[in-house]
Write a structure and sequence with these properties.
By secondary structure, the protein is mainly α. The chain has one domain: Ribosomal protein S20 (Methane Monooxygenase Hydroxylase, Chain G, domain 1, Up-down Bundle). Helix 1 packs antiparallel against helix 2. It is elongated, with a radius of gyration of 17 Å.
């Protein structure tokens, strides 16, 4: 454990942020899995929204979000 107060606070903040980021990533993965099971337009918009929000807050890279959305759109088009 750090001896300096600022470092102790930094450790607490990092743990809190890591926990939040993990929950966001897990939710995104679950939405993608649900989409591949159903492949519906409503689910696709939920996944796209969640991916954009995760990229906006820096949880995932913006290119990863774009790649996810492109793959979803391709699967949705193939289902039609």
């Amino acid at each position: 454990m750090a001896n300096i107060k600022a470092n102790q606070k930094s450790i607490r903040q990092t743990a809190r942020r890591a926990e939040h980021n993990k929950s966001v990533r897990t939710r995104l993965k679950s939405l993608v899995k649900d989409f591949t099971a159903e492949a519906k337009q409503a689910t696709a918009s939920l996944v796209a929204s969640a991916a954009d929000k995760a990229a906006k807050s820096g949880v995932i890279h913006r290119n990863k979000a774009n790649r996810l959305k492109a793959r979803l759109a391709k699967k949705l088009a193939a289902k039609k």
